[in-house]
């Protein structure tokens, strides 16, 4: 199979229900479920290359978090938060009848993975944290604020790919075909061309973050990490501005004592498109 199946599940929010879209790869009867959770402004198709490789071994489920991709936008922008994404993911795992689950989380998706891991009776087997940890460097938050939610429009996919590459070179080297494949699901067509496939209001909670809020969140995330008891793989772009060397080192010494794999020539965040990145994840998830 070269293309995923698209489906939706209804999830609860404060004033009603919203549809969560998810992309599914592999045999739907396979009991080995791998959940792939994307970054802040991304969507589930980011994992196409990894999922295509894993599909012969696992059932791979890649949601679009609310406000992204094919999922509904939320009326209250303050609901674009980790608790919402964790709750939606629990609903999704119940929908796909996941008895046990491995989680691969990139950036925001890794924090969602930590949130899932902190839930009592969550059947989490293994966790991959892709360039994220309990401490998020302030410089990366400021970088994200510069572009997140800014209105943009392009006349073609190629023009959009060039513009997105300008702010995404920290993802590391990609061929033109690889970058176009990552770009196309990020876009939706309107009357005048192409716009980003996310609700600009996902930027509202990020803009409202204060040092006090960041400090409180960091404390809660470290608590969750220190109580994590499942095998954990930590991936890091060697040039990352979000996951510092000090935080990565601490994560190998605390909690589950994650195994650390770094990728040279990559910042935030590895896209899990390159062969060495896929191999690191695959070996970890498929090991006895």
Structure description:
With 288 residues, the chain is of the alpha/beta class. It has one domain: Alpha/Beta hydrolase fold, catalytic domain (Rossmann fold, 3-Layer(aba) Sandwich), CATH 3.40.50.1820. Helices cover 35% and strands 22% of the residues. The protein contains ten helices and ten strands. The chain has helices spanning 48-54, 82-95, 108-117, 138-147, 157-166, 176-183, 203-207, 211-226, 245-253, 275-286, and strands at residues 5-13, 16-25, 33-37, 59-64, 101-106, 124-130, 187-190, 193-196, 232-237, 259-263. The strands form two sheets. An eight-stranded mixed sheet has the order 1-2-4-3-5-6-9-10, sandwiched between helices. The chain has a two-stranded antiparallel ribbon with strand order 7-8. Strand 1 and strand 2 form a beta hairpin. The longest helix has 16 residues, at 211-226. It is globular, with a radius of gyration of 18 Å. The two termini are 25 Å apart.
Essential attributes:
alpha/beta; Rossmann fold
Assess the beta-strand content as a share of residues.
15-25%
What would you call the structural class? alpha/beta
Please tell me how large the radius of gyration is: 18 Å
* Through-space gap between termini: 25 Å
**Rough outline:** globular
* Widest sheet: strand ordering: 1-2-4-3-5-6-9-10
CATH-level-2 architecture: 3-Layer(aba) Sandwich
CATH topology: Rossmann fold
Helix and strand pattern: EEEHEHEHEHHHEEHHEHEH
Mean pLDDT, nearest integer?
96
State the helix count.
10
User: How many domains make up the coordinates?
Assistant: 1
Residue windows where pLDDT falls under 50 for at least 5 positions: none
Annotated CATH homologous superfamily: Alpha/Beta hydrolase fold, catalytic domain
What share of the residues lie within helices? 25-40%
Largest sheet: 8 strands, mixed
State the CATH class: Alpha Beta
Number of strands: 10
């Amino acid at each position: 199979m070269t293309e995923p199946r698209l489906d939706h599940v209804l999830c609860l929010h404060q004033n009603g229900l919203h549809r969560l879209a998810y992309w599914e790869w592999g045999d739907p009867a396979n009991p080995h479920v791998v959940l792939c959770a994307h970054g802040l402004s991304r969507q589930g198709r980011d994992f196409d290359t990894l999922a295509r490789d894993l599909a012969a071994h696992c059932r791979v489920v890649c949601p679009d978090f609310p406000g992204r991709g094919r999922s509904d936008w939320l009326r209250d922008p303050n609901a674009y938060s980790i608790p919402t994404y964790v709750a939606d993911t629990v609903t999704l795992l119940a929908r796909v009848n996941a008895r046990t689950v491995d989680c691969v989380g990139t950036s925001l998706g890794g924090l969602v993975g930590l949130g899932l891991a902190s839930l009592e009776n969550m059947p989490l087997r293994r966790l991959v944290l892709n360039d994220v940890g309990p401490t998020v460097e302030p410089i990366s938050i400021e970088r994200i604020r510069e572009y997140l939610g800014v209105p943009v429009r392009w006349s073609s996919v190629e023009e959009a790919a060039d513009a997105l590459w300008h702010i995404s070179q920290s993802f590391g080297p990609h061929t033109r075909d690889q970058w176009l494949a990552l770009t196309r699901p990020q876009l939706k067509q309107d009357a005048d061309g192409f716009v980003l496939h996310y609700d600009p209001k996902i930027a509202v909670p990020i803009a409202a973050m204060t040092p006090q809020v960041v400090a409180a969140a960091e404390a809660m995330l470290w608590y969750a990490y220190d109580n994590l008891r499942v095998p954990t793989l930590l991936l890091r772009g060697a040039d990352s501005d979000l996951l510092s060397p000090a935080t990565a080192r601490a994560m190998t010494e605390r909690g589950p004592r994650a195994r650390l794999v770094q990728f040279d020539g990559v910042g935030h965040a590895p896209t899990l498109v390159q062969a060495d990145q896929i191999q690191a994840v695959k070996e970890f998830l498929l090991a006895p």
